[in-house]
Write a structure and sequence with these properties.
The chain is of the alpha/beta class. 37% of the residues lie in helices and 18% in strands. The strands form 4 sheets. It has a 7-stranded mixed β-sheet, sandwiched between helices. A 4-stranded mixed β-sheet has the order 1-2-3-15. It is globular. The structure holds pyridoxal-5'-phosphate. Pyridoxal-5'-phosphate (PLP) binds at residues 104-106, 109, 156-158, 208, 212-213, 241, 243-244, 269-270.
């Protein structure tokens, strides 16, 4: 099927939540993808930080094929080895003692929100032994105790009702009120403001170490360390959303390692399933113990095929030192982007940590991204004015250089 036919079938039948799409991709290998007409693109976006080993990594493809031919799904009534083994690997390499698997970043954050509330209520001693009467209206508060989660301006935690509410950006709320109760917002990187927002209602603080969708806003050391101290002192849980920063992207396996702190809970998704849908919520034992059998579940969560792909991905990241590679190549990419800032007046700032990097413009970046795609480079623009790279951890220096050169040309055209 030719690209125009796929695009017209797409635009007529798929709900228009993503805007009009202009490229129909059919095949990928490493950092390259091809459209239905055979045009090749350099993919330095990697499906929004998902295919962290590049497209169709042989080890991931083999793991998927093997597991699909053995057992694709049995539900969480039964144990399966890929899920147990991936949980073990995550526990071995992080602060966490326990893992809950789901299918996406939003679901991982939903699980974290539920666990934070239950843990806070358990600590406050307000949990009743029985479920009690169903109130007439869903919003009626039928339990006492802390429940509020403090989140940060410019954050992004997902698109479900609770996670858009957690997302402190009004553009994600418009048309969907009433939102879920129980969230309070504070400015990112403003420790004093978070301190002022804490009350007897507070259960947790949730934050991204780097706000990816917000335009790679990097948490200061003072802020994250301060949040760790504050939450510890006040008996609150610290939830880190590492859905985008996790698993090597920033040059450490988890971004919290840059700060010398450990959270109480962490959420993962994007690269976790090696291209298949997989999310996870990780917690310390004491926090995890607040979830009892029946409290939370997901039919597909921890699906054997997704976990087999995730296991192959994480093993490859660890065995091939791809975290160190991300740190090194990230340094190179940051330098090349810095040169673009010196050359083009419209580039105001470079924000980069490992292979999570980009440039802040003095204008919307949408047209520049479209021109890059015309020239065979896939990157994207977020928060209107931030053009970002999320290349695979396996990307080569030459591929990064070629990507920056294409962006350079697209920026030059904007100037002239
Ligand atoms: C993408 C993202 C999410 C949402 O993940 P989905 O899989 O789209 O639900 C949540 N948090 C962060 C930091 C993200 O980047």
């Amino acid at each position: 099927m030719a690209a125009p036919d796929i695009l017209s079938m797409d635009s007529i039948n798929v709900m228009a939540t993503y805007g009009k799409r202009s490229i129909a991709l059919v095949r990928g290998s490493g950092a390259r993808v091809w459209d239905a007409d055979g045009k090749e693109y350099l993919d330095l976006l990697t499906g929004l930080a998902v295919a962290s080993l590049g497209h169709c990594h042989p080890r991931v493809v083999a793991a998927i094929r093997e597991q699909a031919g053995q057992l694709a799904h049995v539900s969480n009534l039964y144990a399966v080895k890929p899920q147990a083994a991936l949980a073990q690997l995550l526990v071995d390499h992080s602060f966490a003692d326990r893992v809950f698997f789901c299918n996406s970043g939003a679901e991982a954050n939903e699980a974290a929100i539920k666990l934070a509330r239950k843990y806070a209520k358990k600590r406050a001693g307000v949990l009743s032994a029985t479920a009690g009467e169903l109130p007439a209206e869903s919003g009626e508060m039928c339990e006492q105790g802390p429940y509020e989660i403090i989140t940060m301006s410019g954050c992004f935690h997902g698109r479900t009702l609770a996670t858009i509410t957690a997302t402190a950006q009004s553009k994600f709320h418009r048309g969907f009120a009433p939102l879920a109760p129980g969230f309070r917002y504070a400015p990112f990187n403003d420790l004093e403001a978070v301190k002022r927002a804490v009350s007897e209602k507070t259960a947790a603080v949730m934050v991204e170490p780097i706000q990816g969708e917000g335009g790679d806003n990097i948490a200061t050391e003072e802020f994250l360390k301060g949040l760790r101290e504050l939450t510890g002192k006040r008996g609150l849980t610290l939830i880190l959303d590492e859905v985008q920063t996790g698993l090597g992207r920033t040059g450490r396996l988890f971004a919290y390692e840059h700060y010398g702190i450990e959270p109480d809970m962490m959420t993962l998704a994007k690269p976790l399933g090696g291209g298949l849908p997989l999310g996870a919520m990780l917690a310390r034992q004491e926090v995890a113990d607040a979830f009892e059998p029946g409290d939370h579940a997901s039919t597909f969560g921890g699906n054997p095929v997704c976990c087999a792909a995730g296991l192959a991905t994480l093993e490859t990241i660890l065995e091939e030192s791809l975290v160190e590679r991300a740190a090194e190549l990230g340094g190179h990419l940051a330098k090349r982007l810095e040169a673009l800032r010196e050359k083009h007046a419209l580039v105001k700032e470079v924000r980069a940590r490992g292979l999570m990097a980009g440039i802040e413009l003095d204008r919307p970046g949408k047209d520049i991204v479209a021109r890059c795609a015309d020239r065979g480079l896939l990157i994207n623009c977020t928060a209107v004015t931030f053009i970002r790279f999320l290349p695979p951890l396996t990307v080569t220096r030459e591929e990064l250089d070629r990507g920056v050169e294409i962006l350079d040309g697209a920026l030059a055209e904007e100037n002239g």
